[in-house]
Amino acid sequence: MGDPSVRDQSCNLYHSSSSKLIMLEEMGKGIRMTEPLHDRNLSTKNSLIQTIAPSTTAITIAVIGDVHNCWDADDAIALRHLGVDLVLLVGDFGNESVEVVRSIAALDIPKAAVLGNHDAWYSATEWGIKKCPYDRTQEDRVQQQLDLLGDAHVGYGKLDFPALNLTVVGARPFSWGGSEWKNTNAFYQSRYGITSFAESTERIVQAASSSALDTVIFLGHCGPKGLGDRPEDTCGRDWSPPGGDHGDLDFAEAIEAARKLGKTIPLVAFGHMHHQLRHTKQHQRVPLVDQNGTIYLNAASVPRIVKTESNCLRNFSLVTLQAGSVAQASLIWLDQKMTLVSETVLYRNETFSNQPHQSREAIV
Length: 364
Hints:
seven-stranded mixed β-sheet, globular
């Protein structure tokens, strides 16, 4: 999140939400999870995409929402277990948590990442610099994270994946969201030579125009402006006063410019605005929008790892891409044995679907 009052998240929390998404409630030593669920096991990649018609090769993409230190060795095991072809990480790995980024950088699956506002928590604002717990004259933890990720960090850049026939283009890294260019001048000017939304848009468009493939997935930390202005909307402001579109203007303008360049944009993935709303427990953020042939996916289901005395659950957003379009998008939870315990289908393109949706309840 972009609010300065928000501190880094802990993994050792329970997560609750409306019945439309995940509902976790403490039940003695376990967790009860109630939601729509396909009656199938995701033990192999073939079973993962069994609801997708086999007319063309399907690509499975894992989008990992705001990590906030909720990452461990089992995440790499889980991603291999799921058989994903590409991993997209939207940032906020921790408060300049170099070791978390080091572990993510070691992931041996094709990946692309963009750093979030928490990844420059002690470097991008005056109040953050004042609270910095390390000597900034001796080390630059923002640069350390960038160096660790290398080419996998696509903020203001792009990464071509010829084997998947797509390019991932990164939006503005370290974004706090919102319609004002504030708390960013010195940071973006010193690191990128950028001082305005217009210059930022131009940099993103440059990356998109240099993509080797015509199918482009955009990856950002905060989502683009234009997805609604209610608190529960995909990038809606959910703190006091609630309401207002907190999406990035430069991101939205770059997407439209890329379309004019002839790029096909099946997916725009991001996080930042957590699914659980801060101002009320009565509503859950809308995590996905289908607009102009593009799926806009907010993957920030936080905390993404939930621990109890008897189990450990972790979530991923899974997107199936087929024939240059999103065929399905889901939010799934795996337990410590890598068993699927919950899936919420957020979107399904019926053109590719050959299996009706079922519901059931899972007790962990």
